[in-house]
Design a protein that fits this description.
The complex is a heterodimer of chains A (603) and B (380). With 603 residues, chain A is α/β, with parallel strands linked by helices. Chain A is built from 24 helices and ten strands. Chain A is elongated. By secondary structure, chain B is an alpha/beta fold. The chains are: A alpha/beta (603), B alpha/beta (380).
Chain lengths: 603, 380
């Protein structure tokens, strides 16, 4: 690691020095282009944060750009304010616009969100074309030169340095966000908003934050633009420019901010080089976008890792098998909770869930006392997972109440339930595919609120310290679950059983009081099932109440203290494993479905 | 870390040096006195406005090739290079720097007022005269002595129209339908202003969007006021659709508007019988309005295989004025060339050009009327 760090530091230093001395070698035309490129790079970083990192389709970036530029123009020319005061108000106005544009994202996602934001961007250009205050189609000219003591910013060479410094700060802040808790949470939301919510990520706030970041970058880009060009017109913020920005982000690689910058610089230079050959430019520009989308979906930024992988594969595949799953180390036993004592931690009262004509759950009631391991069994389609989804807040019940830890939590959003101490796994594994195993755990360990992200601005060091602390705790979790060897790998590269274990480790990392496991043994072999049983028991012994849905009757009979049997959306039996297995209704329900139960019980 | 110390010292030194001398000692590449005379044509060659750009290019190129065929100016050929501004003001500012650093004497274009306004400060500093096809009053407001228009400003269109309609024809019962795009909005404001000067208030003032296809609501509102004339401020195709739907709704009042309403595209979209009687205010009514326009149209057709129209004619006039000024001034550059353009009196396709200090050289449009599917000069 060490020599690599020094190498990249050295590279960074050379790059910074190169950029610092760049103007000495440039003509007035080239420096102007460089200045425009920096503006676009700032915009691309903002778009990358929102779309690439946060997964929020944002076709209104050009409108944020416009709001920043127009607000600066209006405030300096009409209101006669100073440039920097106008700039500050302009960025604030853009941030407000960003929050406004973000509201549809709370309801719609993906291409629908694209259409909505595109509509808002169109509305913006339309408004400035028609508004008296924005100068109509003629725009606003004669924006004053920004003043800085001792520096003549009317020289584009000196303006370059202003832009360069602001850009470096903006990029550094963006990278800081991406590499710490907030960015991790945004990436988790991008990969799987549902799972992120179940792990306590406040998805609505997070989506707003993504747009807020995009808009602030847009506003900064707009201010720089107004100071550079000193003229704004509706055409500068056209949809064509929105798609140019989009292409920059896609070509550069939307998941990497550095990629976005590379895309902005690269595409703008290509455009500028081809400006004398308009026909070629159109064709070249279009084909580059298509080629990238088809052959390099991760963009330019995705190429180096792919090349590295290819080289590693050619060198020999011996190293890949090196990662071995280690044993789970049981938690120290903390349980002093008597089995039957205490109030019920979870109580479900008369839950009914209707999907149009289908009644998936019909007046289901059950209560789980603290410290119990409860099994929920039943034939396929009996409503087990639906029950979990209602309890964990993914579904809103048609009727009935859910009480958890003494509070009515019916229909609370998943992230609030997670914060209240409920954690779950999913039947079909919902690990964050683009995050490493360690990052998956880190997302769960982070119990902070997204609203507290304002600390990024005023106390970045505290963020760094907290992140270091989270990493240390993540390493402890990985070590306990025997996953240390896989820490830096993407979950998809792991064997299925290991992925299951990662998901359980992740769910427990939330520090829950109630753990819901949806078929944790599915796809595991006999030995793995035995280890799973030990793991669940050890987790319970730290004081966690466990409810699990399971088809593996051996595991259920062994592990669970009480079992609830569902069939056709109704509770048909509840009791100790032995008592339930002897209930005629249960045998009947199972015989109707499969021969599993009797044979497993007798074995 | 210790090993890196010289490197850091070097860096600090470099920073200090950088602080002392600011970059940007740009040697100004003044136009050489031999070789071809370099003129830049900046226009949208791609994007939404590329058709405008294509017409402009054809008009200007025609003028340049005529001069080159006659031996150029002072024995030097004229080199017209095309730059694509994509209709984007930001790209325009890039190109302004580019033509400056590549030593172009003068610039023709752009057709887009906003792009031209964005470029104007740079061209003014670089002292590069520019004849634009834009017609926004904002171009005049820039106040650059290096910026010239190759036609009247848009207010002239509407002022001439209002003068004809209200003062000469005595029509005061006027409805308006305009779109909210930049062209429609400009027309709306200019015509309302021209009417207000004559104490006329439009009986209806309907605004539609640029991509609207159904105008029955707006047109029904207009029909209720039974106006004598409907002012139309929209681009060719939309204007055509509006007129067609108006006739379907039983509105018989004639329409009036600017240059788009005189084009074949408008006529074909609306249908020839529907546009009968449409009043058009345009500096270039048609290709066979005068012997000069006929000659131009024939040459245009011979060169490009298509019919000439207003934008090509404007660019042709602009290029002719630029080349005449270059000849008269013995290929002057910068301020001298700008003065030469200002002094140039030129009888063009659009009329007689004589520039004033605002950079406008022509102050009237002609009024035409569509009769039997053809645009002819109106008899007042």
């Amino acid at each position: 690691m060490r020599p690599r760090v020094r190498l990249s530091l050295g590279f960074l230093f050379l790059l910074a020095a190169g950029l610092w001395f760049l103007p000495y070698g440039l003509s007035s035309y080239a420096i102007h282009v460089a200045n425009v490129i920096i503006v676009f790079a700032v915009l691309a970083v903002g778009l990358g944060l929102c779309m690439g990192v946060g997964g929020q389709v944002n076709l209104a970036q050009v409108a944020f750009f416009g709001v920043g530029a127009y607000a600066t123009a209006i405030l300096t020319t009409h209101a006669g304010l100073g440039f920097w005061l106008s700039a500050a108000i302009a960025v604030a106005a853009t941030a407000a616009t960003g929050l406004l544009v973000a509201t549809p994202a709370l309801r719609v996602q993906s291409h629908y969100l694209g259409i909505v934001t595109l509509g808002l961007a169109l509305a913006f250009t339309n408004w400035v074309t028609n508004a008296q205050i924005a100068g109509g189609a003629e725009g606003i000219s004669n924006i004053p030169v920004p003043t800085l003591p001792g520096v003549d910013l009317s020289s584009e060479y000196l303006y370059y340095y202003l832009e360069l410094i602001i850009f470096a700060l903006a990029l550094a802040f963006g990278l800081f966000v991406v590499r710490t808790a907030l960015g991790r949470r945004m990436r988790a939301m991008r990969d799987d908003a549902l799972a992120a919510g179940a792990l306590g990520a406040d998805v609505p706030v997070l989506r707003m934050t993504a747009f807020l970041l995009a808009s602030v970058y847009g506003g900064i880009g707009g201010v720089l633009y107004a100071g550079l060009i000193r003229y704004v017109a509706p055409e500068s913020f056209s949809i064509a420019n929105m798609f140019l920005l989009l292409a920059m982000v896609i070509i550069g690689g939307r998941q990497s901010l550095v990629g976005c910058v590379a895309g902005a610089v690269g595409l703008y230079l290509v455009r500028e080089l081809l400006v004398d050959h308009p026909t070629f430019a159109q064709m070249g520009y279009g084909s580059v976008v298509v080629l990238v989308v088809v052959f390099a979906p991760t963009g330019l930024a995705g190429l180096p890792p792919r090349i590295r992988q290819a080289i590693a594969r050619r060198r020999g595949r011996g190293r890949e098998t090196a990662a071995q799953l280690a044993e789970f180390r049981p938690y120290p036993d903390l349980s002093e909770i008597s089995l039957e004592g205490g109030d019920p931690l979870l109580s479900i009262d008369g839950i009914t869930k209707q999907f149009r004509g289908l009644k998936a759950l019909d007046d289901v009631s059950l209560s789980v006392p603290a410290g119990q391991i409860r099994g929920i069994v039943g034939p396929n389609g009996s409503g087990k997972t639906t029950l979990f989804n209602v309890v964990s807040g993914l579904y809103r019940p048609t009727a009935g109440r859910v009480r958890f830890a003494g509070a009515d939590v019916t229909s609370r959003p998943p992230y609030r339930l997670s914060r209240a101490g409920m954690s779950r796994t999913f039947q079909n594994l919902r690990l964050f595919g683009d995050l490493t195993v360690r990052e998956n755990i880190l997302v769960a360990l982070d119990r902070s609120r997204t609203l507290s992200s304002w600390r990024y601005l005023i106390a970045p060091l505290a963020i760094v310290r907290r992140d270091r602390d989270l990493r240390r705790r993540a390493d402890e979790v990985l070590d306990r679950y025997g996953l240390t060897a896989f820490a830096a790998l993407p979950p998809e590269s792991l064997p299925y059983g290991t992925q299951r274990r990662v998901e359980i480790a992740r769910a427990v990392a939330c520090r829950p009081t109630l753990l819901l496991l949806d078929e944790p043994a599915a796809g595991l072999n006999g030995d793995e099932v035995r280890k799973l049983g030990e793991m669940v028991r050890s987790i319970r012994d730290t004081g966690v109440t466990v409810v699990l849905i399971e088809h593996n009757m051996g595991l259920v009979m062994n592990l669970c203290e009480r079992i609830t049997v569902l069939a056709g959306g109704k509770v048909i039996a509840e009791g100790t494993p032995a008592a339930v297995a002897a209930t005629p209704a249960v045998i009947e329900a199972y015989l109707g479905d499969s021969m599993d139960l009797p044979s497993e019980v007798t074995s | 870390m210790a090993r890196n110390r010289p490197l850091y010292a070097l860096a600090v030194l470099a920073l200090v040096l950088a602080g002392c001398s600011a970059p940007g000692s740009d040697k100004k590449s003044s136009g050489s006195t031999t070789g071809p005379i370099k003129i830049a044509l900046v226009d949208a060659q791609s994007g939404q406005l590329s058709s405008l750009g294509a017409w402009e290019l054809k008009g200007a190129k025609l003028a340049v090739s005529e001069w080159n065929a006659q031996g150029g100016i002072n024995g030097r050929q004229i080199q017209l290079d095309v730059f694509d501004d994509q209709g984007d003001p930001t790209t325009g500012t890039n190109l302004a720097r580019k033509i400056q650093s590549e030593g172009y004497l003068a610039m023709i274009g752009t057709a887009e007022s906003a792009v031209t306004i964005a470029m104007a400060p740079t061209l003014k500093t670089a002292q590069i005269p520019n004849i634009t096809s834009g017609q926004s009053p904002g171009l005049v407001a820039v106040g650059s002595e290096f910026l010239f228009l190759n036609g009247p400003t848009s207010t002239t269109y509407d002022e001439t129209l209002a003068k004809y309609v209200v003062d000469q024809q005595g029509i005061k019962n006027i409805a308006m339908i305009t779109n909210n795009g930049s062209y429609g909005k400009g027309e709306h404001d200019a015509f309302t202003k021209a009417l207000a000067k004559r104490s006329v208030t439009p009986v209806a003032d309907q605004v539609v969007t640029t991509d609207q296809k159904d105008f029955s609501a707006a047109l029904t509102a207009i029909r209720q006021k039974s106006p004598k004339l409907i002012f139309l401020g929209a681009e060719e195709v939309e204007s055509g659709l509006i007129v067609k739907q108006a006739r379907d709704l039983g509105i018989t009042a004639p329409f009036a508007g600017g240059a788009p309403q005189g084009t074949p595209v408008f006529l074909n979209t609306a249908g020839a019988q529907n546009v009968e009687g449409t009043i058009v205010s345009s500096p270039y009514l048609s290709n066979d309005i005068s012997p000069a326009s006929k000659k131009f149209a024939d040459a245009y057709k011979a060169a490009y295989g298509e019919d000439a129209e207003l934008h090509g004619a404007k660019a042709y006039d602009g290029a002719q004025i630029m080349l005449t000024a270059l000849k008269n001034s013995n290929v002057a550059t910068g301020k001298a060339l700008a003065d030469a353009i200002r002094a140039t009196k030129y009888q063009g396709l659009l009329g007689d050009f004589a520039y004033d200090n605002t950079g406008v050289g022509i102050f009237a449009t002609s009024i035409g009327k569509i009769s039997n599917g053809k645009l002819v000069a109106a008899t007042s």
